[in-house]
Amino acid sequence: MLRSKLGLACACGAGLAAIGVGAVLRSRHNSKRRTPHKGNESESDSAACECKSTCNDASTPVSASSSSSSSSLPPSPVQCSASSKVLLTGGYLVLDPAHSGLVAALSARFHTRIEAAEGQPNGSKCHVNGCICAPVTIWAPQRSTRMSRYQLQWISEQAAWSLQATDREQERNNFVEQSILYTLSFLSSISASLPSFAERYGRGLRIYLEGDHQFYSATPPQQENGCVPPVVPDGSKTGLGSSAALVSSLVAALFQYFGAFDGADEKESAVTLSEHTPFSQLSLQQRRTLAHNLAQLIHCSAQGKVGSGFDVSAAFFGSQRYTRFTPEVIQPLLGMASEGVKDGGLTVASIPLPTLRACLFNTDSQHGWNNRVKPFKLPPGLELVLADVAGGASTPAMVKKVLQWRKEQKAAADELWSDLSAANGRVESHLSSLARAAASDPDAYHSARLQLAAMPASQWSTALPNNDRSSPSSSASTTSIIIQHFIDLHDTFNQTRALLRSMGDAAGVGIEPPSQTKLLDATASLLGVALAGVPGAGGEDAIVALVLDSTVAKDVEAAWSTFQFDGQSNRVVKRLPVGVATETIQCKTVSRESGPWKQ
Question: What is the pTM of this model?
Answer without folding.
Answer: 0.87
